[in-house]
Design goal:
Distance between the termini: 86 Å
Helix content: 25-40%
Radius of gyration: 23 Å
CATH architecture of the largest domain: 4-Layer Sandwich
Number of domains: 2
CATH topology of the largest domain: Purple Acid Phosphatase, chain A, domain 2
Oligomer: single chain
CATH superfamily of the largest domain: Metallo-dependent phosphatases
Mean pLDDT: 88
Low-confidence stretches: 240-248
Strand content: 15-25%
CATH class of the largest domain: Alpha Beta
Order of helices and strands: HHEEHEHEHEEEHEHEHHEEE
Number of strands: 12
Largest sheet: 6 strands, mixed
Shape: globular
Length: about 290
Amino acid sequence: MKNSVIMRFKQRRALDPQPRQRMRWLQTFSLLLQSALAEPRQIEITHQRILLPKLPSEFQGFRIAQLSDIHHSPYFSESEIVAAVRRANELQPDLFVLTGDYISHSRDYIPGCARALAELRAPHGVFAVLGNHDHWTDGKAMWAALAEQGISVLTNENFKLNLAESHIRLLGVDDIMVGQDDLRLALLGTSVEETRILLCHNPRIIREAARAGIDLVLSGHTHGGQINWRLLTGRKDSKLNRWLRRPSRRLTRGHTELGATQLYVNRGLGTVIAPLRYGCPPEITLLELVKA
C-alpha cells in the first residue's frame, strides 16, 4: 500500500508542469543575467547625421566623436577606458567632446581616468564638461586633472571653432543637478546667426536651450536607461512600458528634437549601482554635421 501511494505521488509530480516551468524561468533568468553582465563590455559605435541649416559650407561633413559617462570605478577599469579611447581614435573625428561623469564614488580614480582620456586625438582638440558624479566626488580636482592633460573643460563659456574663413560655436555649461549651470553666461558673445552646439551633461537643458535658439545639444547622464525594460517585459501595453513612453522618457537616449533644437543623448560607457546592461550597450557616438 505504502509503495503504491509513493508511486502515485511520483507520477503526479512527473505530470505537474510547475517544476518544468520553474526550470524554464531559471534558465531564462540565467541567460538574461549572463547577457546583462556581458553587455557592458560590448561598446557600440553609433553613426548619426545632424542636419544644421546654418552650418557653414567649410564644416560640411565635420565629424564629432562623443564619449560620456565613463564612470571609472571598480566596474570600469583604466585599461577598459584605454581600449575605448583606442576605438574612438580609429574613427578619426575632427573633434572629441566629453559630456561628464568621468568617475564614481572616489577621487582616487581621477588621475587614471584623465590619463586615459589624454590619449584622445583629433585635429580640433578635445572639449569637456563635468557631470553630477564628478562634482559629488571632487569637481575641482576632476576639472584640474582634465585640464592638465590638455583637455579644454568648458564651464559656462563658449569657444569659437574656426575653419578656413568660417566658424561655429561650441558652448559648455556645468551640471544642472548641482546647480552650477549658467546657459546665459555660456551664450555671451554668441549670435543666433551662428551654428551653436551645446555640451551639457544632463539632457534636461533641452527646454532652456530651445528657448535660446541652440542648434544642437549633446548630453549623457541617463546611460540610456542601462536596462531596456521593453525587451524584458515583451509587452507593449504594460503599465511599465506606458510609463517609459512618457514624453520625459524621450530624453533617455538617442536623437530627438524640440522645435528647431536637436538633442543627442549618449548611452555612456560605464555604469553605476550595478555593472549591468540589457538591450542598451555602451556607446561611442560619431556625429556628422551636414548643411540642411
